[in-house]
Amino acid sequence: MKKIIIIAIALLACLSVSAQDNGATSEKKDKRNLVVKEWNVNTRGNRVLDHLTTYSPDGKKIEETEYDSFGKQRWRKRFEWGPNLQMTRELLYDERNRLVNYKKFEYNEFGRKKIQYTYDPKGKLISTKTYEYITQDA
Asked: What is the mean pLDDT of the chain?
């Protein structure tokens, strides 16, 4: 009898995790290998690339680039992901692709950002940001 209960509990746990994963991964599937280009069109009808976002084969944002009105790069961000589907680092580059700073993240037990550390290109800590999540009752 105990074995049946243990098997039933394990099966329910697997189904619960599977249902949660399907919700998260279905959103990611829509972005697999996706490149999103945003264009500005001036009054003369000229199109200039404004923003470019690239997603990985598994649907995670891996790079984002912002351009000026002449189509030259303003900045670029690269995103690195851990095996637990959480962003581990965000790297910011300037218009000449020089590293400006990078951020590392810690997450709470619910998978939400807990602390963000920002470092200069040489690895010196610049700032720390903490996140607080408050549930509002209706």
From this structure: 85
Q: 106 with 82: CB under 8 angstroms?
A: no
Would you say how long the chain is, in residues? Answer: 138
Q: What is the mean pLDDT of residues 91-110?
A: 97
3-state secondary structure 36-101: EEEEEECCCCCEEEEEEEEECCCCCEEEEEEECCCCCEEEEEEEEECCCCCEEEEEEECCCCCEEE
Sign of the dihedral defined by the CA atoms of residues 46, 52, 55, 56, in that order? positive
CA nearest to 79, candidates 95, 69, 68, 90: 90
Q: How far does CA 27 lie from the centroid of its chain?
A: 13
- 12 versus 93: the higher-pLDDT residue is 93
- SS3 at position 29: helix
- DSSP 8-state assignment for residue 123: S
Q: Which residues pair with 105 in a beta bridge?
A: 116
